[in-house]
Amino acid sequence: MRPRSRHILAAAAVQLGTLVTFVAAASGVAAAHVEYVTDADNGDPIAFLTSALSDPVVVLALGAGGLAVVGTMAGYLRVQPLRADVAAIRRALVDYADLLPWLLRLSIGLPMVGAGFAGYLFTPLVTAADTGVPVRLFGVAVGFALLFGLATRFVAGVALASYLALLPVHPSLFFAFEYVAGLLAIVIVGGGRPSADHVIARLAANDETVYSRFDPFYRRIAVPAGEALDPYRRYVPTVVRIGMGIVFAYLALAEKLLAPNQALAVVEQYGLSTLLPVPPELWVLGAAVTELFLGVLLVAGLFTRAASTAAFVVFTTTLFGLADDPVLAHISLFGLVSVLLVTGAGPFSADLAVFRSPNERGAPEMGPDAVRTAASGGSGASGTPRSVERSADRDPGDADR
């Protein structure tokens, strides 16, 4: 392909991608947690789809949008423009890999504290009145322990076990399924640094400290636990990616396609058809298709960072578009898609096969367990794993070879 033609196609791909992003963002206003802002009945999904798909405007808009997205993806794979830019962005994001445990703790700890003070368990759909669990104490205790990074793996494990045990009793907890991915990831990576676990482990590793003489936990439990879980650290991006994909797909099905009246009520409640004068059915189907498509991309691990960026846009537009949608309920979602921006797709992903990108694997960039390293006597002071430094020194074109 001639250089001039290549640049023209690259420019066209960028422009088309910008248009698709705008359309996805507009649809995102009606996306996310419909259950949080309306009490309307579910409605008949078959009747809704039959009526919506009989409208030529809806069909043409969805068809054009789908072709635009698929065309943009195919064009990018064919031309692969902006290689150096993409590689530079990847290297910059990978440099934050040593902070992933902290990011995970913030992503789950902050909304847990907020949920505790607000009086709900994981999701606003399960309140203190709905369960015998001491919701406020549980949320605040778990949240602050995660934020401080104190007994991180144990606390995350307790929270994860509690969620799974209560899920059959309160199926509405599935609307906050991202907690499963986030808590499991924290169990795997531990507290990292900065964290109370890391500080205490450094005390335990120093034979000159008073604490090291009666250390009851870190050398006996934290170090063996870290050694046992280390082989699974490389799968953290996969865990987060699949968990977020399931969340998106579930929201598309449970809150839009299978409960169209709720979604239509949101469109009417917030005057979205006035914002963009299209049929209300197009708003609902556009949001559902956007979420479902993002979910499929994340589960498959295809265009993971691009899908995560689109998800970030969807969450942001939702917060501005739906004034009653609780901000706290989205912090975990924001945090986990940010994790994927740093790690990429991880193992078992289409990105590895399509782009053959070394820093999409997520494995070496995760680095060692900082707490275990400190408790074992290591310095634990390096902010960047050596594998990340090697990745940063890689030639800009390597990421797309």
TrEMBL record:
InterPro entries given in the database record: DoxX, DoxX-like_oxidoreductase
Membrane topology: Multi-pass membrane protein
Alphabetized UniProt keyword annotations: Cell membrane, Membrane, Transmembrane, Transmembrane helix
GO cellular component, one term: plasma membrane
TM helices/strands, residue ranges: 57-79, 99-122, 142-166, 173-192, 292-315, 327-348
Segments of this protein annotated with the region Disordered: 359-401
Biased composition (Basic and acidic residues): 387-401
Pfam families registered for this protein in UniProt: DoxX
Subcellular location: Cell membrane
Superkingdom as given in the UniProt entry: Archaea
Protein name: DoxX family protein
Organism from which the protein derives: Halobaculum roseum
